Amino acid sequence: MDQDTMAQNSALVMRLLASSVVVANRAGKIIRDVMSRGDLGIVEKGKNDLQTEADRSAQRCIIASLSQQFPDIAIIGEEGTQNPEVPSDWIVTDSDHSILSMQCPNDYKKIETKDVVVWVDPLDGTSEYTQGFLDHVTVLIGLSIKGKALGGVIHQPYYNYKVEPESTGRTIWGLVGLGVGGFLPQQPPQGKTIVTVTRSHSDALVQAALEALHPDETIRVGGAGNKVLLLMEGRAHTYVFASKGCKKWDTCAPEAVLTAMGGKLTDIHGSSYNYEKTVEHPNSRGVLATAKGVDHESILKKIPESVKNKFP
């Protein structure tokens, strides 16, 4: 069966996931191209909130490509609703063949376009990108179905770039009920607690939540996608962020992939976030994520009530 026929015969969710993998790769190339040209075109959107030409261009590529293939699906991107007119070579219409060849889980076979929202963070870790921490950068495309983060693509444009300078990055994906692809999930080491936390957005509350977990080791890195990747790769047990600074486009894709491999992501009270298109964009009750094999409830109980009360 050729790819066009396979795509036509595939369920909407499988087609959208398969397309998002290829689109995320293209966005990653745009991000590398902007960096190699040297003019990042930095704009300050607010305190500690930068935007570069790479953010803007990568988002235009993603929205234009997905809109052309799925014109009726709601797409919400970090950089607002830009005019998606883009160079023709930014329009991606290919799909990942291996995903299309998989059996769609029964729960998704009848999903319609109105049930789906795509959450896009075209460049997660912008601050790190401008400072040269390139391995912190991710492209995030999250698929929410009836309000739940169930599918996701995480592309790392600079994966392993220090060892392989010509690397075109790595793309991982997950669909709850199907599994994950593009990497080999690992569980973190037993007998110790490694916590990952923000590199640049810390305050007294963030610190109080971190200290309550009594970590043996703390990993401070940028980007929500990057921090959740540490959980997936078995390099950390928990990601905690007692702050309102995270948004739905930061967590939709990472939550979906993490959940698909057996981990969990909630707010600081243990409730799931809603990703329907009408919701507010900030994750106003913080973020707590745990790797596969880590007891999410026991971590939740360690967060002080004094911290939880700040996020009603």
List the helices and strands and how they pair.
Elements (H helix, E strand, L loop, with lengths): L2 H7 L2 H26 L5 E4 L2 E3 L1 H17 L4 E4 L19 H4 L15 E9 L1 H6 L6 E8 L2 E9 L13 E6 L3 E3 L12 E5 L5 H9 L4 E5 L2 H9 L5 E4 L6 H13 L3 E3 L20 E4 L5 H7 L2 H4 L4
Parallel strand pairs: 3-4, 9-10, 9-11
Antiparallel strand pairs: 1-2, 4-5, 5-6, 6-7, 7-8, 11-13, 12-13
Helix pairs in contact: 2-3, 7-8
Description:
The chain contains ten helices and 13 strands. It starts with a helix and ends with a helix. Strand 5 and strand 6 (148-156) form a beta hairpin. By secondary structure, it is an alpha+beta fold.
Q: What is the end-to-end distance?
A: 53 Å
What's the number of helices?
10
- N to C succession of SSEs: HHEEHEHEHEEEEEHEHEHEEHH
- The assigned structural class equals alpha+beta
What is Rg? 18 Å
- Outline the biggest β-sheet: 6 strands, mixed
Unreliable runs = none
| Form type | globular
The proportion of residues forming helix, as a percent range, comes to 25-40%
Q: Please provide the count of β strands.
A: 13
Strand order of the largest sheet: 3-4-5-6-7-8
List keywords for this structure.
alpha+beta; single chain; 10 helices; 6-stranded mixed sheet; 5-stranded mixed sheet; 312 residues; 21% strand
